[in-house]
Write a structure and sequence with these properties.
264 residues; mainly alpha; 9 helices; rod-shaped
Length: 264
C-alpha cells in the first residue's frame, strides 16, 4: 500500500468519526437545552469562543511547527549518516587490501543491520536490537583502530577515515536521539483537552437551524482532529504514516555494493 493511500485510509475514518461524534453531541445538547436559553448568552459566548479559539489556534500552530522541525531534523540526521557511511567506505578503499576488505565488510554488515533490524526497532523502542547494531559499528572502529598505515598516502587516508567515523558516530547518535524524542505527556494532554473544550464550546452557540449548526460544528471538529492526526504522525518520525524514509540507507548500501563488486 502506498504511503499516500495508507495515510488516507487511516486519516479519513478518524476525521469522519470525530465529525460524526461532534454532530451527535450537538443533537443531544439541542434536545436537552432550549435554544432560547442559549440565545440570550450569544454575545458572551461569542467573545468567549473568540478568545478560546485564538489561544488554541496559536497552540496548534506552535506544536505543528515544532513537530515538523523535529521531523525534518531527523530526516537530516538519516541523510548525513548514510552519506558518512558511503564516504567512509570510499576512503578505506585506499588502504591495504586486507584492511580494506575487513573494514568495508564490517561497514556493509552495519548497513544491512540498520535496514533489516534497527529501522523497525526504532519505532518499537527495542533498545536490545539497537544495542546489537551499535556493536556492529563499534566493530568498524576496532578495525580502523588496528590499521597500521605504511605509506604517507595511507596515513593521510587513515586519519581521514578516523575523522569520518567520528562524524558517522555522531550522526547515528543524533538519529537515535530523534527516534526517542516525543512530545511531552503534559503537552499532549493540553492538546486533547483543548480540542474537547473548543469543539464542545460550539454547542453553546444558539443557531436556529440544526443543519447549519451541524455543519459548522462538524467543520470545526474535523479540522481539529485532522491537525491532531498530523501532530501525532509527525511526532513519531520513524513509525508514522509519513515516517522518515530509509531510502538514504538503501542508496548507501547499493553504492557500497557496487564499489566492492568484482570488475568485469
Amino acid at each position: 500500500m502506498g504511503r499516500t493511500l495508507r495515510t488516507v485510509t487511516r486519516l479519513v475514518p478518524i476525521v469522519a468519526g470525530s465529525m460524526a461524534l461532534g454532530v451527535a453531541g450537538l443533537w443531544l445538547i439541542r434536545a436537552l437545552v432550549p435554544q432560547d436559553a442559549l440565545r440570550a448568552s450569544n454575545d458572551v459566548v461569542g467573545n468567549y469562543l473568540q478568545g478560546v479559539d485564538t489561544m488554541y489556534a496559536v497552540l496548534l500552530a506552535f506544536v505543528v511547527f515544532v513537530v515538523w522541525q523535529q521531523f525534518d531534523v531527523a530526516r537530516g540526521h538519516v541523510e548525513r549518516e548514510a552519506n558518512d557511511c558511503v564516504d567512509l567506505h570510499r576512503i578505506v578503499g585506499g588502504l591495504g587490501d586486507d584492511d580494506r576488505a575487513r573494514i568495508q565488510g564490517r561497514l556493509e554488515r552495519y548497513l544491512d543491520a540498520v535496514l533489516a533490524e534497527e529501522w523497525t526497532a526504532m519505532s518499537r523502542g527495542d533498545e536490545d536490537t539497537i544495542a546489537r547494531v551499535t556493536d556492529l559499528l563499534d566493530a568498524v572502529w576496532d578495525e580502523l583502530h588496528d590499521v597500521e598505515p605504511v605509506t604517507e598516502c595511507q596515513k593521510a587516508l587513515h586519519a581521514e577515515a578516523l575523522s569520518c567515523f567520528n562524524d558517522l558516530s555522531d550522526a547515528r547518535m543524533s538519529r537515535l536521539t530523534a527516534a526517542r524524542t516525543h512530545m511531552p505527556l503534559s503537552l499532549r494532554m493540553l492538546l486533547y483537552m483543548g480540542a474537547v473544550v473548543v469543539s464542545g464550546s460550539m454547542y453553546l452557540v444558539a443557531v436556529d437551524r440544526f443543519a447549519i449548526h451541524a455543519i459548522i460544528t462538524a467543520a470545526m471538529v474535523g479540522a481539529v482532529s485532522h491537525i491532531l492526526y498530523v501532530v501525532e504522525d509527525l511526532d513519531d518520525a520513524f513509525s508514522g504514516d509519513w515516517q522518515v524514509s530509509r531510502a538514504a540507507f538503501v542508496r548507501a548500501r547499493a553504492r557500497t555494493a557496487r564499489a566492492t563488486a568484482p570488475q568485469p
